[in-house]
Every structure is written in structure tokens, then in C-alpha cells.
Design brief:
The structure is a homodimer.
Chain A: H1 15-18, H2 20-28, E1 37-39, E2 46-49, E3 54-63, H3 75-91, E4 96-106, H4 112-128, E5 132-140, E6 145-153, E7 170-174, H5 179-188, H6 200-210, H7 216-224, E8 229-232, H8 237-248, E9 250-254, H9 256-259, H10 263-272, H11 276-282, E10 289-293, E11 303-311, E12 322-324, E13 327-328
Helix pairs in contact in A: 2-4, 3-4, 3-7, 5-6, 5-10
């Protein structure tokens, strides 16, 4: 029934033409597994080492057009972003990512290169942090959906929860703030970086949006240094510290002079007519880490104090759970998972 | 700007109106966690016990219109099916499911009752097998997407792989075959069961499609009894045994007289003009288990011999890796993940 077709490189074919098992085979081929992977992909389930008898585990889903755009990011960047987003959740517990599982939904006419590129990005980013990609699924969906689960090793440490902050603690961050939101604003303004290779500050912000780089080591080091509460910044600094404040029944006071305003960020904000503090305080997806420490703790390298913790009923902090320079932060307030109904 | 609306029950509202955190809060409320859940939902990651220092892990994605239809199944049934599909992968390793993570994508106008119903089905089905629901995500997508990851405890046993079958083994199944495919055929023929409560055989087959019931305990018992290879039947008996044959470099011979034809299945097949053997041999999603055992092994309760294993180069078994009554099985050959390109 079919006439013979010229032989094509697989990457030019669609996932429906190549088929589930072949696409998965391509994605899995050539990936090395760390020692924590006792049994990799290919059976009904994988088996991963959990040396201290516990496993930290988290899951996130990224949807095309909602969490990424394939005209703004390469498939590999999408894969790397998925690893960063999930890996940061493990780092925020003070754990080390050991294994990722990836379920990929895509339309049948998706080029194999897209599915393979996402898998490649996930594989390379996982490998770079010493984790394996041990399993997943490939199914048909209307749009590209990347659903990732990450396992982590607490290495004998207690997990650092959101609920451990105490009045008197200092609030500190590791990693950079506002850069993913700045990159998103640039992309939304039509600056995709293609014709701006010479403008390093723009290119760096675009990269920051396309592939966030969580400070994985800082999470483990914070746990070792006795961090009392920790979270990754996915919804925005104020929103995510709000989760710590709520879970710990405290209030948090941030000091913008301690956060500081990166001149490159300020310059780009001026160019696109934006408020850089909106990016820094409410921009999500940098996947920096925020933690509280006892006021006399020695903070590990890479952590900078930006505020302090006061009692939940502190009179100097009426209003919101998180104050910026003594006041409510009244801007957009962080990422919303759904469009307004 | 908004005029006040009459207060509604949350279930009548949409997920966008209620918001991500409230929907997740509803889904999590009232669920009990087993002792294996050291830290449940609500932080950046969960922490699950992995008593023997290893964790079995698997992931599957279910897409509306592809893996389920909300006019054919209730949201709770969809949730239960997602647990069965994933839990069976853990059972097929000889492990016990301990924890599920669920990432749910849905359109903003999805009724809260749909999201809550899926979560409820997942929670109840997990609870029934002693597992927790420890985390996940809720995001906006074009259609309902349910992405599940399951963790399992090998309880000190070696995982039972697909690659362990040896010539001379017997092939056995636990659980029933062809019933999910029969239920799907009935639904496709317009028999949704609504006006057929009196016809028990039809109702049972519809149930088998809507909520498969994997023989979890049979997986653990097979591992204890020394099963050499095992898989769950998700793509179809012949297709999934083909995976064992390929991984083990053997051939498998099935004997229909040993599989047997359930008279109820035969009667329903006749009614809709179908071949019941197509359902039994090529129908997926029953999530029964298939395994091979040494020929002198004592099979645990619930396992029935349906064939044997011969060498990969056996002359009596030329052609396919899996023969039925000595011949190639030339029917549809199992579930395809993508529509033909």
C-alpha cells in the first residue's frame, strides 16, 4: 500500500512514523547512568539506590505554550529547564538529585528531532548533576507536555522544610533573582537574541529564562550549615517566602538595599520600560534558593542575607506575611497556574 | 470590578476560579498516609521510606480522549485506572507500591469536581493498596492529562526483570485477560451500561475497562516463588510476552486451550460481532501479570500456566518470538502509542 520512501534521517520523521519504542530507544541510547541507578530504563520499572533508607521525591509538569514556547527555546533548552525546575525542588530539601523520570506527551506530527531534543536536554542536564534518567513514558497529546519526576538522596541529613523558620532567623538567598522574568519580558518584547549576539547582557538574561541554573550545591551546603527552612524560588521571591512564613507561622521582612539591584538588570528594564523590582520580587522560575538560618550561623559560600524573620504577631509587620522595606509588596504577586477564569 | 457572585459549592466552580493551591488543598485534605510516607505533600518535595536502600520507580501518562474519555468514565474511575496502570508496573517487578505522585494538567474551565474526582480516585485506590499520594503538580493544559509516578518497595527481593526467562520455563498469568478490551468494544458500540444494570456480564466488562484491577499480591508472591521473568500486560498478552522473549533471547509458545475462553466473554463477543481471542491475545490494559517460572516451581495461588519457553533458535518456533498454538498471531498486535502518521 505504501510506496517506498527515500530513506530519511530519523530526526526528520515524526514520532508517529518512528513509533514509541524507537523514539524511546533514541532517547535512551548513549546515556550513561550513575552508580545510583541499579536498573535503568527498559523494564516495567527502574530501580534506584536510596542509600539512607529514604528518598526525596517531587514532580512538575511543563506544558507547551504555558511553560515554554518552541519558537523561543530549543527542545534541548526545554529539557534542561525541566531538569532545573525539578532538581531545584530536591535541592531545596537539602538533598541531591539522583534520578529523573520523564513522561512526554506530543502530537503525532511532532518531529522526532523535537522529542529527541527534549530528551537530550534532560539527559545532558541530569548527567551534569550526577543524576540518571531512569524511566518515563511517551504518549500522544494535543500539545507537547513534559512531566518530570525527580528522586533525591538526603545523604543522612534531615530534610529542610518550609515550616522551620523561627523569629530571629536571618533570611538568605543563593542564586540570582529576576533574571528569568527579565528574559521572558525580552522575549515577549520580540527580542529573541537571534540578531543580538553582541549584547551580552540581553543574551545572558534570555539564557536565564530558557535554562535556569539552580545553585544545587548551595542547597546541600545550607542543610549542612543548619538552615532551618528552605524553598526554591519558582513562583517569585515574595510568594515563595510567603509559603515559608505561612508554614512557619512567622513574618518575613526583606530589605531591598541588601538584595541589591544588578545594574545590567536595571539597564535592560529601562530599555523595555519595566520595573526591575517587579522581576526580582515577583518573577518566578529563577529557581534560586531561599532559606532562613539562626542569626549566628555561618552562612555557606553563595548565600547572602536579604532580611530577617519576626514573630507572626509582630506589630512592626502588620499586613502581609512578607514585607519589603517595611511595606506590603503590592505588585503582581507571583506566577498563577491558571489564566483568570 | 467583579460583582459579587452567589456563594457556590467549590465543586461547581472551575479550577481557574478556585486556583491551584485550593484545588491541591482539596485533593490532599483527608487523605491518610501510610507509615512509608515520612513527609507528605506541601513542601518542595516529599520524603518516602525506602527500607531496603533501593526504590523501584515507574511513570505513565494518561491523556483525555486517548487513554480515557470523561463521557465513558467518571473522574474517580480515571484516577483509579491511573493508579492501577502504574501500580501494576511495580507489581511486575515483584515490588509493593508505596507512594504515588500525580501531575494533573487541565483546561482552566475544568470543573473542580473533575480535578477533585480524579484526585479522589487516585487517593482511594492508593489507600486501598497501602500506598500514599505524596506529591504532584497542577497546571493548565488543553486537555486533561494525568501523569503518575509510582514508587515501590522490593522488600529485600531481587527485582524480577523481563530478561530472566530461560528455555524450559513455563509461562503463567495471574489476573484476567481480554476484559478491558471487551469493555472498550462495548463502549465503542454505544453500550455505556447506563440502561443495562441488569446485564451483569456487560457491566463487569465495562468496569474492567474503566478500572482495571491488577493482581498486586500475585506479583510479590511470584517474586517470592522464584519467578524468572515478569511483566504486566498493558500492550496485550502477545506484545508484552514479546518483550520478555526479546529481552531474554527466547521464544514463547502459548496454548489457547490452557488460556481458556470465558463463556461470558465469548457471549459478549458474539453480540458485538468480535473475535474474543483478539481481546484476549492483543487487548491491553487489563494489567494482569505474566511471568515465567522454572518448570518444577510451585506456582503461587492465582497463577495459571498458559505456555512454555523454548530457545531463541528453536526450530519448532520459527517466525515470531511468541507463537499461539504453534503459529504467528497475526491480529492487530497490541496497543500503539501514536495514531498512524
Amino acid at each position: 500500500m505504501d510506496t517506498p520512501r527515500p530513506k530519511q534521517d530519523d530526526a526528520d520523521r515524526t514520532v508517529a512514523e518512528l513509533g514509541e519504542f524507537a523514539v524511546i530507544g533514541r532517547a535512551v541510547a548513549g546515556r550513561t547512568q550513575p552508580a545510583t541507578t541499579l536498573l535503568g530504563p527498559g523494564d516495567d520499572a527502574a530501580v534506584v539506590r536510596a542509600p539512607d533508607g529514604r528518598v526525596a521525591v517531587s514532580a512538575d509538569m511543563l506544558v507547551e505554550g504555558r511553560h515554554f514556547r518552541l519558537d523561543w527555546s530549543t527542545p534541548e533548552q526545554v529539557g534542561r529547564k525541566a531538569v532545573a525546575q525539578n532538581g531545584a525542588d530536591i535541592a531545596a530539601m537539602g538533598a541531591r538529585p539522583t534520578a529523573f523520570l520523564v513522561s512526554l506527551g506530543c502530537p503525532p506530527d511532532t518531529p522526532v528531532a523535537v522529542a529527541a531534543g527534549i530528551s537530550e536536554g534532560i539527559g545532558l542536564a541530569a548527567e551534569a548533576i550526577g543524576a540518571g534518567v531512569v524511566g518515563g513514558d511517551l504518549v500522544q497529546s494535543d500539545r507537547v507536555v513534559v512531566s518530570v519526576t525527580v528522586l533525591g538522596d538526603l545523604e543522612g541529613r534531615a530534610p529542610v522544610l518550609r515550616s522551620g523558620a523561627r523569629a530571629g532567623d536571618v533570611v538568605a538567598v543563593a542564586g540570582r533573582l529576576g533574571r528569568s522574568a527579565a528574559g521572558l519580558a525580552l522575549l515577549s518584547a520580540g527580542l529573541t537574541g537571534a540578531d543580538r549576539a553582541s549584547d551580552e547582557s540581553v543574551a545572558a538574561l534570555l539564557d536565564a529564562h530558557r535554562v535556569p541554573t539552580p545553585p544545587y550545591r548551595a542547597g546541600v551546603e545550607a542543610a549542612t550549615a543548619g538552615a532551618r527552612a528552605m524553598t526554591d524560588i519558582s513562583d517569585g521571591l515574595v510568594a515563595d517566602l510567603g509559603h515559608i512564613a505561612d508554614a512557619s507561622n512567622v513574618r518575613i521582612r526583606l530589605d531591598r538595599s541588601r538584595i541589591g539591584l544588578d545594574p545590567a538588570l536595571a539597564a535592560v528594564a529601562e530599555r523595555v520600560g519595566a520595573d526591575p523590582w517587579e522581576w526580582i520580587l515577583a518573577g518566578g522560575e529563577d529557581h534560586a534558593l531561599a532559606a532562613t538560618f539562626a542569626s549566628d550561623a555561618d552562612l555557606p559560600d553563595g548565600w547572602a542575607v536579604i532580611g530577617d524573620v519576626v514573630p507572626g504577631d509582630d506589630e512592626t509587620a502588620e499586613g502581609s506575611a512578607v514585607l519589603v522595606d517595611g511595606r506590603d509588596w503590592t505588585a503582581s504577586g507571583g506566577w498563577q497556574s491558571f489564566d483568570a477564569g
